[in-house]
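so my prof wants the structure for this chain in the tokens format not the other one, which i didnt know existed until like an hour ago. anyway here's the sequence
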Amino acid sequence: MYVESAMSGSSRMASVGKPIELAPGLELPGFSMAFDPNEEIFGEEEPTDFVYKVISGAVRTTRLLSDGRRQIGAFYMPGDVFGLERGETHRFSAEAIAPSEVALVRRSALERAAERDGAAARKLWALTSHELEDLQDHMLLMGRKNAAERVGSFLLKLARRGASGVIELPMSRGDIADHLGLTLETVSRTLSQMARDQSISLPSARRVVLRNPGALLAA
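here's what i got, hopefully its the right format
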């Protein structure tokens, strides 16, 4: 779904013309939109006219491979910025995982701010370098770690976003599998084994409680 066409439906607009804080101290005019679960925010090969920030809910970026398999590039949670790409079109699609509110800032406005303000340029660089670090970590995970290590690293990454040791998973196990390059069965089997080993507990399919994070590091 191209955002320009969606903007014509006022019922989709959560807010209009408010400053959006893309990073601490970096505010730009924008607006926000509401998206239903599995609804497309932008599609592969669509113009990179906007930069996005998750206000509530969760987002995944996806790409269909030539053999029909789905690769999930990343998950974005409240506070995360996405859609920062070098080219003129998106290489991945983005979809809401849960009911989500997403803020949009025009890429041209961000570029103008960076051109005239050194502080804004440094904050933009911080955003892009954070994205690059996440990509490098994911490449290491995919290339050098077995299934248990991949799932353990993924859970620890999510756990770092909070301090309670309780992880609420907005994504399905199928989503996790497509992100980690595993099958659904492998992810489910690995989580069950971690629960038997008392590294985690699974009160429900979408809630994970860390009981021994050190064991996940050594998974």
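also thought this was worth mentioning. The chain is about 35% helix and 30% strand.
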